[in-house]
Amino acid sequence: MTVPGRRSSTFSRLLRHGFTDPSAAERLLDLPELAALRDDPVLLDALGATADPDLALRGLVRLAEAQPETERGTFTTTLLSAKPFRDRLLGVLGASEALADHLVRHPKDWETLVTYEAVDLHPGVTEFEHGLAEATDPVALRVAYRRCLLGIAARDVCGTTDVAQTAAELADLATATLRAALALARAAEPADAAQCRLSVIAMGKCGGHELNYVSDVDVIFVGEPAEGADEAKALQAATRLASHLMRICSETTVEGTIWPVDANLRPEGRNGPLVRTLSSHLAYYQRWAKTWEFQALLKARPVAGDPELGSAYVDAVSPMVWQAAERENFVTDVQAMRRRVVDNIPVDRVDRELKLGPGGLRDVEFAVQLLQLVHGRSDATLHSGSTLDALAALAAGGYVGRADAAQLDEAYRFLRAMEHRIQLYRLRRTHLVPEGEEDLRRLGRSLGLRTDPVAALNKEWKRHASVVRRLHEKLFYRPLLDAVAQLAPGETRLSTKAAGQRLEALGYADPAAALRHLEALASGVSRKAAIQRTLLPVLLGWFADSADPDAGLLGFRRVSDALGKTPWYLRLLRDEGAAAENLARVLSAGRLAPDLLLRAPEAVAILGDPEGLKPRGRDHLEQEVLAAVGRADDAEQAVAAARGVRRRELFRTAAADLIDSYGTEDSPRTSDPGALVDRVGEAVTDLNAATIAGALRAAVRAEWGDELPTRFAVIGMGRFGGHELGYGSDADVLFVHEPREGVDEQEAARAAARVVTEMRRLLQVPTTDPPLLIDADLRPEGRSGPLVRTLASYGAYYRRWSLTWESQALLRAAPIAGDPDLGRRFIELIDPLRYPAEGLGEDAVREIRRLKARMESERLPRGADPTLHAKLGRGGLSDVEWTVQLLQMRHGWAEPGLRTTRTRAALFAAHAAGLISTEEAQTLDEAWVLATRVRNAVMLVRGRPGDTFPSEPRELAAVGRYLGYAPGHVGEMVDDYRRITRRARAVVDELFYGA
User: Fold this and answer.
1) Is the pLDDT of residue 585 over 70?
2) What pLDDT sits at residue 334?
3) Exposed (0-12), middle (13-18) or buried (19+): which is 294, by Cβ within 10 Å?
4) Which residues fall within 8 angstroms of residue 713, CB to CB, at 6 or more apart?
5) Which of 549, 562, 786, 850 is 20 to 30 A from 957 in CA distance terms?
């Protein structure tokens, strides 16, 4: 009798044995069905050893109640007397509600858990076929399937089999089930069966002999006509048989379903025929198949139907599988597919996704398959469909470090065991870790975590996922370093040939040179080499994700050689997460940024500073430049300092542009190309303006001290005045002066001319820094006229001689250096010319159109494709700018918003004023931004300016990457450019030419 207010001793024992609801358990134990078991001393121990004692006890009660009166005694006696049976039955009941439901519906099936012969420990396909042999219809097949599954689950939860053996048994049971289903389909349609030979090829986890409890079973069907049969009719018959097989397995009956049979990995996916002949399969794979299809064929295995046809299929496709790594963009295709999988996971699920999320099962599988495909070309020991077997073979061959392989093996086994237990509970296809406390507790206990199972489970899961995340990409790169490093005795290294294969697969054009760079960087026992060995596996991955991995690695070696003795360089790359990736992006994206960096490698510090990539404003730059000029001993030294600032800022701008265009692991690529164009244009304009201001100060100070005898201003023209400079743009300018009071005009003119000549010389003196070319050809009278004029002379010329095109050129004029008051008065002088009162007359409009047409026919370089020339081609910069400028000259007098030197601002103002439609404005803006980005890309990639897409494949691919196109999509890029500019030209024809 229990004393009131105190717990019974049974209640306390139940708590100690892991029951979460001891009161309910007490009531269940008092039921008459358990009378014979209630006092058994080991029953509670057996229940307490299960994943969920409460669930196990409820299942036991239901199963006992389901026993016929005449059989209940046998059941309870067996349970009491046979410990192995007791552990297996209660283990299943405590882990799987679904299998408990099956046992209740089929109360005699517990007997399958009693036998314990040697063959029952590790059954294969033959044993499972025997277990399914009596099934004569789909319902009976489901019952027999669950009966076999009961045995697999019992061995699994009791630890008789490990996770790999369990997965293999599940694949063998699937094989037996597919054979049984095909036999039922043949029996139902004997005429179809007689007409054809049909083979079922298992793919995915079934093909790899590593199936889950609940998973789609991926298959491919191959058919051939029987001897003497018509091929078309035979394929129709084979298709009916295959469809019937799929329905037998997939359809829901009173006994539920077995699993869906998925044939979408076949050629053309769900759009292709369900059954093809062997020759049709081969024709498709030889001509049309994508990289991922060969990756999928890695696991192909004939499992049912005609064995000779199945073997012929695998023999025929196997050579193609092992040549897949020779395909262009092979590694990037595989990695891009992996990224797409992660990107498609709903945000609210990504942290619970065991299979597809970062650090999940798919990361291990992709990494292993990638290495198999690269090295399986020359090493048949890697030809395995099983992830764990392949991982062991990779380690044995030295393709993966042994320690890395061991960690990955442990992590993969743990994650697969989690996946198995999650699915086993209700036999539902899921890869999501549950959120409920009760579910997590059962899951943790099922994996042997009995002390605080929820906390222990989360800790172990995160630890293993972290290992996978850390290793899955490094797995590919770290052995490359071991191939050139001193290894411990007994360690297997990647051979030079295998290292070369891997580098080639990564896109390196010169694997031998890459290996030499790696050896120079990572060999030795110094601390520097040790840090490099830590950094390089990750850097190699980022280099491989570019259009020119060779250039990236070479650039990294040169920067490292230059900065190797500085204490902060490697520490910055190791400790500042973004710095290493930013450097990799910059070094492998083209020639301009690395060239700028290598002239002063200490600028690499910019890449590790969160604020380092933001452009400096003009005031900040001008202040720095003028201070440097003031400290210099002579003019050449002063301008060298100014040009050094310009080079550093040009690198900052290019680096920020590349990093935002490519994106990084932590921040996606910028989605607004117009913002990138504006930022580059503004930044390059500001740094060039500051450099010219410095050159002007240096030239004046060298000869006249603090004050020139004439006021002097530099007016930016063209893209300079429009704040739209690109990396390769010259500085278009006009020079204007005005003699100071009391100064002779001739003396003032000579002083102004000497200043201009000296500025231009200083900015082009050969040094390690890029020159700044000054172009004054837009001045009155062009090259025939004086380089510098007084303000009054400009006024006289423009009043008397100015042509329409000169007024048009002045639309972009803006003061950029020198005397601000003089610059302002120059703008006041030209405003009536560029924004004429009442707009342009018809004669002037005709003149502008005539000039534009002549320019199109005469200035386009011979042989250039007019559809791809960014400046002068159809729908390019010239088309859009002349259209916008015509609107400014016609309507600027009445619309203040049009009085701007910037093309995009004027375009938006024209739209706001109702002069052009929204669609027209968007079309012109898109084309102008794209053409500008193409010019910027060409300069970044080639290191020299250009107006057309490069012809060299690597350079073209690099331009594509900068513009946001994935590897292998340069054709799409060119097509998009033509389409966008063609639409822009149609708008230009209407707005500019009045067509």
Assistant:
1) yes
2) 79
3) buried
4) 735, 736, 737, 815, 817, 818, 819, 820, 822, 823, 826
5) 562
